[in-house]
């Protein structure tokens, strides 16, 4: 009998329900066997597994919709906030989570992210925070009241390692992918963040003045599952940043920012958060009333000393990014380190940097196999020091070519710095630099004060990508030291050029004065008849 005949013969709702369920699967009416049950279970399990892996966002969106429909919204938000707290080492609380079916994302509303002791959080809310907290013997938590759950070793380790912040976010839309989580890249594929307000407390950074700064020691190590997003968009961000050593708090704002990639730590190519920020597609914002932007400029067809579009790609660079900062106060420039920037007591600085981004294509299978065999084979013998040569069966290979082959991708930054309305002072203690002689300090200060209206400096910084391994700040990557060195070298070159120019002008002036006196004497002798010409000597 067919389906309709069975429905006519059925009596009651339960029998009709059994017919409607069994007939589409079995095409007949008989009891379920073990094979039928296992096949049905496998089909349902496999279908949902594929749905979860391929469409993680839509799967979780359906779960959120079902939970919200069944009045389980508070329980779901609590569990999701607890999971985000454990994974991010910061307390994450949000009001609601709703699916955005149109864009295929999950929307979190009114998110509150805190990584700070509750006592310090209350001080900031009441405006009673200290300008420069007292740190005794390197104890970052000295004099801070901690709650019972903050006294655990794990919580104290987190408070000492992580930066402190208290942020509120209007909305966060995320796109999830379980495949990325299994690859160790984090479950978040892309995110759109709108409306960030709050504070960033960095007053307890750099407390150990006796220890030598080691940039490699403070860089972040790789953590499996750390975030690596393919796309991040920030809009309407405004926070207040508190810096150490009693530095004046300043506002930091981002009008709009778009990142094509943002990684905490990428294990394969070891590039990190700070590098991805420099290579962002677009950032427009301000800090301490100074406008800044990161964008991709139009390349000139030809310009002396600058890589053009064609040669840039031939040398392994995929694109060019430009960082521009207008009217930076010298108080921020002083944080680059000791040197001539700290000798400028007042004024502003305009900074423009062209960043050449290396091509980060993953190695092919043949290149990976060749690299494995190259590492497994015995190492070549290099004799001598300096420009030694590698011994091979054929021609010798210069050692410089070997070094370039090991690290061919370089971070290149062409900087254009312009100091405006500045005033230089002689430092009380002259630091020792390999690129700055102590005898050049006073000439540098004199040159700064003589050209106080505008002082342009240009230079190029070339760094290895290894220096960005785990770097989150400009100091962790040693880029601040390189900038300081480049500015100092530029000032020294300008002073040397001026001294050489003055020396040549003096020589030219002395020669001109000597020739003028000689011509005057010759004219005087000619006018008074005492000059001896050609015919006089010929007659003798």
TrEMBL record:
Involved in the organization of the mitochondrial membranes and the global structure of the mitochondria. Also required for mitochondrial distribution and mobility as well as for the maintenance of mitochondrial DNA nucleoids structures. This is Uncharacterized protein. GO terms for biological process: mitochondrion inheritance; mitochondrion organization. Keywords: Membrane, Mitochondrion, Mitochondrion inner membrane, Transit peptide, Transmembrane, Transmembrane helix. Belongs to the MDM31/MDM32 family. It comes from Mucor lusitanicus CBS 277.49. GO terms for cellular component: mitochondrial inner membrane. It comes from the Eukaryota. It is found in: Mitochondrion inner membrane. InterPro entries: Mdm31/Mdm32. The chain crosses the membrane at residues 37-65.
